[in-house]
Design a protein that fits this description.
alpha/beta, TIM Barrel, eight-stranded parallel beta barrel, 11 helices, about 15% strand
C-alpha cells in the first residue's frame, strides 16, 4: 500500500564546515539551503553548536529570514540556545545531546533521565509556536518520556543502523531496523509525530523511508558529500526519488 508522502529535511551544517576551513565567506549555507529548497527539500535543518564549529549565529539569522520552507533549529538544551530560539522562532526546535569532543552526535538524548528540566525548558518554546522535537534512540522509555514532557515530535537516531549497514553487518542492521520500526509504531501510538535521521545514504535509506509512521527524514552529511560529485540539486532529487519509491513499495 502506498504511504503518505514523506518529507525530506536537508541538513546544511557541513556547507558551513567547508566554509570555516578557510575562514572565508564561501560556500554560503543560505545559498545551499535555497538550492535544496529549489530541488524539492521540504525543510532545512541547521545545528548551532556551543562551539560554533560549523553553523554560526549569523547563519541562523540568514536562514530564518531567507527561507520559504520550514527551518529546523537543532541545538542542545542550554539557556543560550533557548534564548536564540525564542528570538528567531523557527518552525521547529530539535533538542540533541552535545559533547564538545564528539565529531558528530553520538546518540540520543536522555529525556527520561532529565524529564523535569526538559519539561520546563520546552514550555516557552511551545508557547512561542515552535514544534519541539527530541532526538532520541528507539528505547520505549525515552519515547514515553518525550510524550510525557510535551514534545510534539521524536526524531529516531538511525546512526547505529547506518553504521552496521556500512560495515556489512546486515543481520545486526536488520535487528536494529526492527527495533526502529517498533519504536516508531510506539511513538505514533502515543500521538507523537515520528522523524528519523543520522547516517542515511542512497544505499540504506529505503528501509527507513518505508517505515509507515516515519513522516520525515533529516539527511545532511551524505547529501553534502554527494554534491561534490553530482551537484546538490541532483543528490536531493535522487534521495527524494528513493524515498518515494520506498513509500510506494
Amino acid at each position: 500500500m502506498t504511504q503518505p508522502k514523506q518529507r525530506l529535511g536537508v541538513n546544511i551544517d557541513h556547507v558551513a564546515t567547508v566554509r570555516n576551513a578557510r575562514g572565508s565567506a564561501w560556500p554560503d549555507p543560505l545559498r545551499a539551503a535555497l538550492l535544496a529548497e529549489a530541488a524539492g527539500a521540504d525543510g532545512i535543518t541547521a545545528h548551532l553548536r556551543e562551539d560554533r564549529r560549523h553553523i554560526r549565529d549569523a547563519d541562523m539569522e540568514a536562514l530564518r529570514a531567507g527561507l520559504g520552507i520550514p527551518l529546523n533549529f537543532e541545538c542542545a538544551a542550554t539557556d543560550e540556545m533557548a534564548a536564540i530560539a525564542l528570538r528567531l522562532k523557527p518552525h521547529a526546535v530539535c533538542l540533541v545531546p552535545e559533547k564538545r569532543e564528539e565529531r558528530t552526535t553520538e546518540g540520543g538524548l536522555d529525556v527520561a533521565g532529565d524529564a523535569n528540566r526538559l519539561t520546563h525548558f520546552i514550555a516557552p518554546l511551545r508557547d512561542a509556536g515552535c514544534r519541539v522535537s527530541m532526538f532520541i534512540g528507539h528505547d520505549a522509555r525515552q519515547i514515553e518520556a518525550s510524550a510525557r514532557i510535551g514534545a510534539a515530535v521524536v526524531e529516531l537516531h538511525t546512526g547505529h543502523y547506518s553504521d552496521l549497514h556500512a560495515e556489512g553487518r546486515f543481520a545486526e542492521a536488520e535487528a536494529e531496523l526492527s527495533a526502529l520500526r517498533i519504536g516508531a509504531a510506539f511513538a505514533h501510538s502515543l500521538g507523537l509525530e515520528v522523524h528519523a535521521g543520522h547516517g542515511l545514504t542512497f544505499d540504506n535509506v529505503a528501509p527507513i523511508a518505508a517505515i509507515p509512521e516515519v513522516r520525515e527524514l533529516n539527511i545532511g552529511h551524505f547529501l553534502i558529500g554527494e554534491a561534490i560529485f553530482e551537484g546538490l540539486g541532483s543528490a536531493i532529487e535522487e534521495m527524494r526519488r528513493r524515498m518515494d519509491l520506498a513509500r510506494a513499495g
